[in-house]
Amino acid sequence: MKSGRPSLPEREGNARELIEPGAVLLRGFAQREAATLMAEIAGIAIAAPFRNMVTPGGFPMSVAMTNCGHFGWITDRSGYRYSSADPDGRPWPAMPARFRGLAACAAAAAGFADFDPDSCLINRYIPGARMSLHQDKDEADFAAPIVSVSLGLPATFLWGGAKRSDRPRRVPLESGDIVVWGGPARLNFHGVEPVANGDVACRYNLTLRKAK
Ligand code: SIN
Ligand code: FE2
User: Fold this and answer.
1) Could you write out the DSSP letters of every residue in 73-123?
2) What SS3 state is found at 39?
3) Residue range of the domain that includes 21
4) Nearest-atom index, ligand 1, CA of 157
5) What is the pTM (predicted TM-score) of this model?
6) Separation of 39 CA from ligand 2 center, angstroms?
7) 153 C-alpha to center of ligand 1: Å?
8) What is the tens place of the pLDDT at every residue in 50-104?
């Protein structure tokens, strides 16, 4: 690991599972911080409320979304894209330093040094919400990895291949788990099965990316 980043071994649940080359599951990596991260999300959602945005085809998404950071991922009838303003024209709330630090630390643990995200998409899944298979490809370049933090209700992550038709692996995710993918896996298809009811109201996912 390059110097200048926090060292990692002290973190709880520091097991690294290679999903495939370029894709790593860090179980429990954010477990201790989960409640604090969810409190940060609640604050962000006051300034930039969760919205069920519509796909370019006009279908409302079951997952409600907001963002923080310099750029936020949005979708409407004009397409998928990053925007420096929310759909009401206001700048997105700043990315908490904790989010940026966690993302850099997780990326480093997965083998990607110096990750510096400028965008954090926050997904909220109520029971029944799902994310169909897709690639993350609205970013300006694909050199940086993606860091995906699971909070709240458990879910089954679908990890596909380079083609939509590749049969996805089912990866169970719990609150505090982080998946990092980049390099040869940067454009793999992925999604989330419908989230089941459980002990808490919903699942959140932070997707930290370098958009521009
Ligand atoms: C996504 O890929 O956009 C979301 C992944 C997740 O919620 O775990
Ligand atoms: Fe995605």
Assistant:
1) EEEETTEEEEESB-TTSPBPPPPPHHHHHHHHHHHHHTT-TT---SEEEEE
2) helix
3) 15-209
4) 8
5) 0.94
6) 23
7) 13
8) 999 999 999 999 999 999 999 999 999 999 999 999 999 999 999 999 999 999 9
Give, using CA atoms, the residue closest to atom 7 of ligand 1.
205
φ, ψ at 107 (rounded to 5°): -60, -45
Could you tell me the distance, in angstroms and rounded to a whole number, from the CA of residue 3 to the centre of ligand 1?
30
Ligand 1 in contact with 67 (CB < 6 A)? no
Rounded mean pLDDT of the chain? 94
Domain CATH for 123: 2.60.120.590
Q: pLDDT tens, 115-147?
A: 999 999 999 999 999 999 999 999 999 999 999
Residue 8, domain member (yes or no):
no
Q: What is the pLDDT of residue 8?
A: 44
Residue 205, ligand 1, Cβ within 6 A: yes
CB of 189 sitting under 6 A from ligand 1:
no
Atom 1 of ligand 1: nearest residue by CA position: 191
Q: Band of the pLDDT at 15, cuts 50, 70, 90?
A: confident
Token code pair at residue 205 = 């996912």
Question: Which one-letter DSSP state was computed for residue 139?
Answer: S
pLDDT of 7 above 90: no
